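The protein record filed below.
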Amino acid sequence: MSADPSHAAYEVTSGAMRGSRFTLYANRLVQEGGDALEVVPLAHLASVRVAFGRDARKLNWAIVLLLLALFFATVSGPLRAWMLELAGKVAANAGRESLEAVLLAAFGALAQLARLLFPLAVMLGAGALALLGFFWFGQTALTLAFAATERVCVVRGRDLRLFDFAEALAEQLAARKA
């Protein structure tokens, strides 16, 4: 692009802007990625913020899924046994009359549904563990604030290179303001 050397660079490795590259020059910030190239003069940039955070919603959903998984795992065995017992009582006392036949079929179907609760509990538990993992890894967000808008770059995990890039960008902004 030009002969002046870059002061810092950052390659986005995850998130919505994956594959983009930020390059800081003495008087501008260049973002390249995909089919786009954007050059922002540092004079238009008001502030730079970088932060690591965890999404509490993921933790809340993981807790809810774990509680549902525990409930389903706890209830599935006794519910199935109870339904099979009721079906056995109806079968022992009935001579295949219409009401007894309907009850027998209903209790059998409910017993089979209760049998499916345990695999459902396992799947819910796996989903909860995945959400806990995403919560634990967190995300690092670089926010570039302009006069009328903000631009945010979010990457998974605690990315110290993004912190270093933001620090270099902030130093360049401070040097221009002085």
Summary: The domain at 8-54+138-177 is CATH 2.30.29.30 (PH-domain like).
